[in-house]
Amino acid sequence: MTPAGDEAQVGGIVGDFPPANGQPLADVICDRVREMLIAGDFGPGEKLLEQQVAAQFGISRNTLREVFRLLTSQGLLVHYPNRGVFVAAPGAAAVVDIYRMRRVIQQGAVQAAIPGHPALVRMKELAQRAKEQAADGDWRAVGTLNMEFHRAMVELCDSPRLSAAFGLLLAELRLVFGRIRETAVLHTPYIETNGVLVDLLEQGRLAAAADELDGYLLKSERSILAALQRLKS
Questions:
Q1: Which of 30, 67, 72, 122 has minimal CB crowding within 10 Å?
Q2: Is there a contact between 181 and 169 (Cβ–Cβ < 8 Å)?
Q3: Domains and CATH numbers, the chain
Q4: For residue 153, how far is the Cα from the chain centroid?
Q5: Among 39, 53, 123, which residue's Cα sits nearest to residue 86?
Q6: What crossing angle do the helices spanning 139-154 and 160-178 adopt, rounded to 10°?
């Protein structure tokens, strides 16, 4: 087990000493945990044990508690007195709000698209990789690639603040996906649509891309809400 004191080191981070870039260690670990949520490494409702997670990242339990506090304030973790800290399990109300935000942020990203933008090149690569993973039946990987596709879309805005806000949204959305077992049904309809969106943006057909994205998000929201409703039956 990795020691959890000030001399512990994981991934180049030493204990509770701040990284060279001056970013507080708790913020660095918070970012890492959020990325793990987006990748599906933690499941909704999962209990996080302090000793285990502190050892995993090589940090003290005091730093870990600050990480938990930050992620709880972001709605990604939930603390229950006398029970511990759990990964959040967002419901239908959260889905509606997530998609409200997605429409605002991603429609703005489409309008900002410029052919040849590095983010657009990445979108094309991610869409192709998702097709390959779908052919192999790796739906978790497809889900992660789809998340990265939409994150790249927001990077068309060249706004670090928007990208950071969208990262929070994606982590919460992945937790919603984690509640649904029909992963192939969730992702299959959008693999081809991602390719269509890339083609439209490369051609500079921004109005058509905005219409395609609007239909995409509406269909996605409805399918997720329906899947959550089936969990209750």
A1: 72
A2: no
A3: 9-87 (1.10.10.10), 92-232 (1.20.120.530)
A4: 13
A5: 53
A6: 160
